[in-house]
Request: fold
Amino acid sequence: MVVPMEQRKDTRFPVEFRSSFSSANVVAGDGTLNDLSIRGCRVFSLIDMKPGTILQLRIHASGDEPPIQISQSVVRWCRAGSFGCEFVNLSPDEWARLHHVIKALELEPYKRAQEDTHVA
Reply:
């Protein structure tokens, strides 16, 4: 089922994070993670996915830290060259790291506005 953008509960942020993923079915690959929210994301990849596939997803949000490990995500939709994942299970530590990234993305426009006023 495809959820129209208007029905999404969480804000999605236009990011370009490197990602990697794997499943028990030996599907594995790399991609570019976009449209990140606290509950899911879109991944652009050359690997074809099927809805319902369960993946372990790694989000490389920072070059300074290890990737955020989403131990279980479910592919909800697929289009040519991309698929959408819902985050189903992650450890409390990884949840805190993801939440920290989302909070930083929420604050980013305000930080830029403050920097612009300080420069002027």
Q: What stands out?
A: Residues 1-6, 116-120 have pLDDT under 50 and may be disordered.
